C-alpha cells in the first residue's frame, strides 16, 4: 500500500533578492493589495539605493515582496506586500522574518515601521512578531475607499534579533 502525503503549498516557494525584471509583477501585487500602492519608479529608487529588496516567489509568480532600509543600527520596513490571493497563509511572516534577520546581520538593533490602523491583519502579524506601538503620525496616509479624511499611521518598533 502506497501512502500519499498532502502537498505543502509553501514548498514550491523560495525567497530571493528583487530584480529590476520583477518590477512589473511587484507593482501588479501592490496595485491588487493597496489602493495607494508604490509605483515602479519607487522600487527602482529602492534598488538603486541598495535597500534590502526581496521577493517570495515560485517559478510562475511573485506572491510577496518587501523593502527595508538599514542604516546606523536601525532598519525601517518600508513596504511588505502579499498578493491578496495568498494572504493569511504565512507568506508575509516568512518574508518579514527574512528581512529582519538580514537587517540584524547588517548590525541593525531596532526596526521601525508605519501601518494604517485599519490594516488589522498587518497589525496582528507585526504584534505576533513582537512589534509594539511607540507613536502615531497624524494624517499620514491618503484616504482609502469611501474614507473622506486622511488616515493616521501607527508607528511600531521592536528590537532585534528575533529570538
Provide a descriptive summary of the structure in words:
- This protein has a single domain (14-159), classed as Aminopeptidase.
- Helices cover 28% and strands 33% of the residues.
- It has helices spanning 23-33, 40-49, 91-105, 120-128; strands spanning 14-17, 52-57, 62-71, 74-82, 110-115, 132-141, 151-159.
- The chain has a seven-stranded mixed sheet with strand order 1-2-3-4-5-7-6.
- It starts with 13 loop residues before the first strand and ends with a strand.
- 27% of the residues are buried.
The total beta strand count reads 7
Tally the helices. Answer: 4
What distance lies between the first and last C-alpha atoms, to the nearest angstrom? Answer: 43 Å
| Mean pLDDT score | 90
Q: What's the CATH architecture?
A: 3-Layer(aba) Sandwich
Key features?
Aminopeptidase, alpha+beta, 163 residues
Write the layout of secondary structure elements.
Layout: E1 14-17, H1 23-33, H2 40-49, E2 52-57, E3 62-71, E4 74-82, H3 91-105, E5 110-115, H4 120-128, E6 132-141, E7 151-159
Parallel strand pairs: 4-5
Antiparallel strand pairs: 1-2, 2-3, 3-4, 5-7, 6-7
Amino acid at each position: 500500500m502506497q501512502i500519499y502525503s498532502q502537498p505543502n503549498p509553501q514548498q514550491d516557494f523560495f525567497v530571493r533578492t528583487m530584480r529590476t525584471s520583477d518590477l512589473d509583477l511587484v507593482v501588479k501585487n501592490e496595485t491588487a493589495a493597496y489602493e495607494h500602492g508604490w509605483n515602479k519608479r519607487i522600487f527602482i529608487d529602492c534598488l538603486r539605493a541598495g535597500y534590502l529588496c526581496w521577493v517570495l516567489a515560485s517559478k510562475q509568480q511573485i506572491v510577496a515582496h518587501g523593502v527595508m532600509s538599514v542604516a546606523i543600527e536601525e532598519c525601517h520596513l518600508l513596504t511588505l506586500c502579499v498578493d491578496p490571493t495568498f494572504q493569511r497563509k504565512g507568506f508575509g511572516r516568512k518574508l518579514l522574518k527574512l528581512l529582519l534577520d538580514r537587517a540584524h546581520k547588517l548590525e541593525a538593533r531596532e526596526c521601525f515601521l508605519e501601518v494604517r490602523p485599519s490594516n488589522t491583519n498587518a497589525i496582528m502579524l507585526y504584534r505576533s512578531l513582537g512589534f509594539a506601538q511607540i507613536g502615531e503620525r497624524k494624517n499620514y496616509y491618503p484616504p482609502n475607499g469611501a474614507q473622506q479624511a486622511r488616515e493616521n499611521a501607527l508607528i511600531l518598533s521592536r528590537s532585534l534579533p528575533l529570538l
